[in-house]
Design brief:
Helices cover 31% and strands 24% of the residues. By secondary structure, the protein is of the alpha/beta class.
Amino acid sequence: MGGPELDVLVVGGGVNGTGIARDLAGRGWRVALCEQDDLASHTSSASTKLVHGGLRYLEHLEFGLVRRALQEREVLMRSAPHIIRPLRFVMPHDASLRPAWLVRAGLFLYDHLAARAVLPGSRAVDLQAHSAGATLQPRFRRGFVYSDGWVDDARLVALNAVDAGVRGAQVFTRTRVTQAVRGEHGWDVAVQPAAGARRILRARALVNAAGPWAATFLRDSVRAGGAEAPAPRSLRLVKGSHIVVGRCFEHDHAYLLQTTDKRIVFAIPYEGAFTLIGTTDVEHPGEARSPCIDAAETAYLCEQASRYFRTPVRETDVVWSFSGVRPLLEDESADPSAVTRDYLLDLDTAGAPLLSVWGGKLTTARKLSEEAASRLGRALGDGRAAWTARAALPGGDFSGWIGRPQRPDLDFERMVAAVQRRYGWLAPSAARRLARAYGSRVDRVLHVSQRAMGAEVAPGLWEAELQYLCREEWASTADDVLWRRSKLGLHYTAAERERVASWLAAHAAGWREAA
């Protein structure tokens, strides 16, 4: 073979890896991404689904991190108003945990560390009069309301990958990088698809965005050639678990609940009929691949929610749970919840460039990707301009449907109405779900008549949507569709989920090959 066929090969299909691939491809670099499983199948789909500054990080004096995250909230909302929306949070005040003046001071900083154009500021509320107080125990008489954002985390990853592909990147899912050998001018990278023959890809630069496996990848798979082997950073693996229960309240606010161990737990409206409660922070010494919530974590989340709600949350109420392992930079903190959520980019140029991503959080992933792409560009000898700060993610530009944008949350409601007008056969709930998932790309999923959508494989899920997900979003299995590209698995019976699995087993490969 001649010279490198790629400029950059990215290892890891989470929010950081797909974001970096998207940014690089948009700058005109020849990019490929390899993910050993499905997109967002690990940490990036196991978050609390928030685009937020991290109010609690102020107590740990992480002012720089909070400011950067707050700056990103509205950038992200404008880029993807279909999968990201404003959310108001109620914090019931418990004087035994934090004094009111401290909470007010923290919220004042939170309101003013970065400019806000979309989100309203914080305020004190009388919980005896506010609708959010009816769900709470009578002892909570006062509280505070502030703003952050909700995000469909797994779809954020998928849309980054879609945009990378549209801009020329090659995206290989279920493809494991078994070895990367460094030379003076490039990398020879051995990749093994789950179905198919091993092959070698050549790239001028390599990105290690393997998340919880970043250190393992450097240690086990990277061969330095004649250069000194790069040293992995020390990561602290912390498991965060969440539970989903039936809807605990009727209003559209979320709750931030202070806990007796000085942490916080969120209770968030979820998928219409449910409430999401999380998260825990537990040291995770085991295998990062398949973390599961344990009985102690479930009991903890139920106990903390029950301290606040009139109706206790019990272990038997849990209808679903999920866990993820966060790869946090080791900072010697004794408390896992106090470990920094900031990120670090290591660029090693002792030979062909190698960029390793350490730490990070969902909200700052776009900024991380921008910085990574700029540093790689300089290492490759061409500092091409950043572009993502004002660019919409796929489906996020509604202008062809609703005209000039106004405010992201209002624009989305106009988008839903436009979908209902164009596809009159859709039920209102289906129109909202599809607009939320696909935004202005919904016309790549829907057809003029219901008959043209093919068979209804499960309630509200037609063959046309499954074909789209296989063809354009790399879906292959029922888990890809029911728990990552959507959360329809929560709404379906076991028999309905099995019908989706059977359809994908029979048809997914053909639609992916046709892509």
